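Repro:
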Amino acid sequence: MNKLGTKLGAIAMSAIMAVSFAPSAVITTLAASDDTTATGDLAVPVYCWYNPNSGEHYFTVNETEGIGLAVAGWEEGNVKWYAPTSGTPVYGLYNPNVVAPDGTPLGDHHYTSDAAEKDRLLKAGWKEGDVKFYSAEKDDLLRDEVYCLYNPNAYVTPNYSGAHHLTLDKDEYDAAVAAGWSGEGVKFYGYAEEPSHEDFTVTIDNTTPKVDDTLTATVEGMAAASY
């Protein structure tokens, strides 16, 4: 038996409901009835685009943005992991001051869930800093680690190489570190596979703990810590 905290709004506290739920999902609709389904996107794919002219990797959940990158000559656009639709924000930052040895503007993208790091980079001249997608929570047993790599030799030779890279592949991470990249460890969390729906029974009664409009409901019918 697990505990689930969610905002339920105005609801009859004596209702017993069958809910379609999933790892890291957000219950967006829940009415007082005997058979209610929670709906909403669970996770979205994170696409990785590659710039063959600079070696840079760019990560986005925006498919339309990817079309623009393809037109501009970026390659791949493969799904690298799935990001929950809510959780800890992952900020995208851009350094417009990075140039190649011949003076060609290159720029550099970086991603972090650390708000303090974001603020430091913005003060140092980086741009943007908006939320690009979300990180799964550390205590979610279904989550996978997203590792960050930094290339200290980026942009110092004619064979340019993007300074930052993200991967869920620990073998890729270790190989890059062995090749001279700096390993920055786990940056945030995602899902290697798209989360699937699971059926729960949510029992709500007048004794259920409640703070303001946030209700802690009892969840039965699934193994512990599987959401």
